[in-house]
Sequence to fold (70 residues):
Amino acid sequence: MVRQRSSPILGETTWERFIEETGAIDLTNDILAGNGADLIGPDHGHWSVEGHGRVASKILVDILQTPLSH
Fold:
């Protein structure tokens, strides 16, 4: 199943700059991958309950349990 992303609020260049300058991690593609309930909420711009659960799980497993490499 290919899930649709919402329309971007920021242009691609601005988003990439934001990610680079803040050190943020964009999990969107990882969260949207896979099957199951709809991850996008009814406003088409925020996560659904299922989406929030997947985000929390991804953060717990892939980020908080991964040793930092400095």
About this structure: Residues 31 and 58 are 8 Å apart (CA to CA). The longest helix spans residues 49-64. Residues 27-70 form one domain.
